[in-house]
């Protein structure tokens, strides 16, 4: 096996912290995780200014914002620099430049994602069927929520990207493999439904619909839309604990209006949390749970239900400032403006999904998604550089 490829394969499992396995949350596995990520970042930094165009500037902006925010946490909140390793899992963006310099093949990246995506499904099903013991995540126990024992499994980036690769291959590979990829895509939907996150279910179904509408003949488009609508209506209308739980939760949130807890949390963090102008520009930094700053953030969750991870894009701004928001905005715009072959539309679907769910989830900066976000941008960049090269030759 190529040494660089092997390095990237292991980087995935370390960057998602072994799917937040409880056995990896302390001791030697935790130390190995931080050590491996540190090495990955250090060997990537020499290539930080080597490339131009495409997604290079947005990633430089986000990386610089995260590094600077470490010092803002000290200046604003007195969080000592000794807590800086807390930020390491969120600082893996420079690996994008390592990948560009190493020229890992796109097919290898796809294979890595599909293998880890399959592993995610297997481990989720294991945890779901053994929910009496927490093997993955930071819960003390899994509780019934929305009509089901809710296991919101960590490390979702590889799972979602693998599902989008699967639907792309349904419409671009040889006929004999289409059913295999379609089965994988359907399993993906089932897993998402079992995790009962409403926005994710809706966005994923919408992207599936967009993909299959794009690739079918006009006379079949209406049939595809009707199939999705009927299936969705049938599920919601079913008198099961799961469908009733989702429906009741939607009614409860809708009736809350401006008192909806996420709206109140976002308002507080945007208007009252940040203590000075400098932090409003450059961010407050990422809070370590054991520091004074971290304890203040945890107290907001315990006392008022205000969790930064629930307010997505607001968390990015509060933690890393305006320039990180600018970086993400550029990524989102470029996902529309940079053209890629149809065989790689899964890149767009992944970026659109994390952007569409960014107001109510932490998928933009959650370390369970970051490595796949970097993979997506790397493949996108390779395709962009190839198109520029072809147009100039």
From TrEMBL:
Q: Which residues cross the membrane?
A: 31-49, 56-77, 83-100, 112-135, 147-167, 179-208, 220-238, 316-344, 364-380
Q: Which UniProt keywords apply?
A: Membrane, Transmembrane, Transmembrane helix
Task: State what protein this is by name.
Answer: Uncharacterized protein
